[in-house]
Amino acid sequence: MFDTLVNRIFKLAGTQPDKLAVAFKKERLSYRELAEKIRSAGRQLADMGVCRGERVLFTALSRPETVAAYLGIQYAGAVAVFVDKNSTPENSAMVYEDAEAVLFLTDKPMKGYEERLRLASLKQLYASSENTETGGQTEEAAGFLLPEPGPEYRMPQENDTAELLFTTGTTGRPKGVILTYRSVYAILSNTIEGIGIRPDERLLLPLPLNHSFALRVLRAVLYAGASVILQNGFAFAKEIENNQAEFDCTALAAVPASMEILRGQMQDQFIPVMSRFRYIEIGAGSLTAEQRKRLTKQLPGTTIFNTWGSSETGGALFTNVSEVASHPKRVGAVGKPLPHVQLRVLDENGREMRSDAEHPGRMALKGDMQMAGYWRRDELTAATLKDGWLLTSDMVYTDDDGYVYMLGRADDIINVGGEKVSPVEVENIAGEFEPVRECACIGVPDPNGVLGQVPVLFIAARDAGFTEAGLQSFLAPRMERYKLPQHYVLLPELPRNRMGKLDRRQLREIWEKQGEDDGMNPVMQAILTRRSNRKFLPEPIPKELLDRILMAGYHAPTGHNMQTWRFTVLRTQEKIAALKDAVTAAAAENKVHFYGFNAPPCVVLISNDRRNADGCQDSCCAAENIFLAAHSYGIASSWNNALMTLCDCGPIRALLTGYGIPAEHRVWCMALLGYPAAEAIGPARKKDVVHYAD
Fold this sequence. Notes:
Blueprint: H1 5-15, E1 20-24, E2 27-30, H2 31-47, E3 55-60, H3 64-75, E4 79-84, H4 89-98, E5 103-105, E6 119-120, H5 122-127, E7 161-167, E8 175-180, H6 181-195, E9 202-205, H7 212-223, E10 227-230, H8 237-247, E11 251-254, H9 256-266, H10 270-274, E12 279-282, H11 289-298, E13 303-310, E14 314-320, H12 321-324, E15 336-337, E16 342-346, E17 361-366, E18 373-374, H13 378-384, E19 385-386, E20 389-398, E21 404-409, E22 414-416, E23 419-421, H14 423-430, E24 436-445, E25 453-461, H15 468-475, E26 487-490, H16 504-512, H17 523-529, H18 543-554, E27 565-570, H19 573-590, E28 602-609, H20 615-632, E29 636-640, H21 643-646, H22 650-658, E30 665-674
Parallel strand pairs: 1-10, 3-4, 3-5, 4-7, 5-6, 9-10, 9-11, 11-12, 12-13, 25-26
Antiparallel strand pairs: 1-2, 7-8, 8-18, 13-14, 14-15, 16-17, 17-20, 19-20, 20-21, 22-23, 24-25, 27-28, 28-30, 29-30
Helix pairs in contact: 1-2, 2-3, 6-7, 17-20, 18-20
């Protein structure tokens, strides 16, 4: 059996026209309304000259217009190409040109690229409605019924390209995953079967829709005739509660890192709120054994699923965590392949092998869900697809019951004197040590030149109770000697990408830079000697140094760990001068004091979401961290807060929008940074302001 999501929605528009399909805040689309939006978008694209098989980009916002645009593109017979909502104009243009696209649906400013791209408004496409068939009457008044599957919709062939998912991967160069209509149908079918999605489901989806996990969940829920509630991320735990109450949500899609964020924000409310979900599917990363045990204990009435998948395969391995959490071995299983997914474990020569914990191999998958290849990357396609099998970079082994256990990516496996060490195994065991909040293991060159590599463990510890000696004593009886970490590195938090996946490449960079900062001033010395300085040399700040200074900013504390801030960096004199001119004019008009803006080589705009009641305080903490870090590296700095009052003035807001700062953000601080042109002279400090109330 083969079907398309567009065709299915048109059928559902006839059988359950008034049922909720998609919602976002106060906006709701029934299946009938969604079908009409899809058809309207498809017709408009055809009127714009978009032909079958051509690529159309669109900004993947977590809103109903994204769903309508995505399926409207396929209604027109074109290929949908997703673009991250936070993608820069440069990156968007790169994907546009690589995909050989004919149109980009977006409302983001594309300054500098307008001539290279054909642009159209996503909002206008969504807002436009056709009423020619009803003589200008509303559909309801005209008794409009959607035909099945729709007068202008032509069912594609199974092997026609449906969409391109561009993923960065480990090389940094975007690669486009080609999904055919057959693979899309197989992916959504696997998700429905693997999770058991019901037609009465109301699933809360707070994930970016350009990501393969969120996308496959969206497809599956709509195909099942259920309802999707969209939410713009996990930054505000209160939104989870509000949507849960508003829509009586039965399910949630999340990633491991977001579950930890919610637990920290909700605190005592975590269990009452999360236990209202019938099930929670966690993808884009594996839960640790400790997380699995804790979640199933805290939420006994909620089924927890952990899914392994990729852009190339969709969800392929499914684990009912609630069934394996109490099993001493299976608690670490990544999942089982569904009946329609074949799995092999291959040796170093690409031959199928019998695997176990001591003899892992490379995982290969086969099924209708797999990609057709990488867009315009023939060599990479040939290396990944062999004899109908898709070769992954994941090292795994299986047990007699078909459970798959993941040891990590092949290039993450640590070779200690010929012995293979799984970083995942080390992390799972170390993660059971109570003072360890999270940890990550990588292999580094043996400094003695004997073993080739040795394990290093990066640790984000809890507030108290952690010592290296305590962790070593905990690990020693639980793993072989060669697996024991040789070095420990404490971090405030582990580096992760936007989807919350661990960034091991950045961990390697952190390790390589160890010991380079021996000249850094002690904290107290930096605090006591730092002064505001508004006179700068024109010399730019090296990006590596600027990145480190900004790191100090986003490691500042935030109320309820919300982290809703944004740090927008201006480094070109053209943009800095334009901002100064706009603020100068607005300050004069609004009688706001504005001074000390003397051609800094770098300006950092620290903004925060207005919905965050602690946004001002959070931004202030970040600003202070930035100023102290800058001073420790010999960089002068000063604070200018004129935008706190003026950021919503028309010309200024236009500039901020061009920088990518959301409209709901208020700019609390302009941090001016640069090498000092003169010595700063600080004011005398009052010393009679401290009072001990003993």
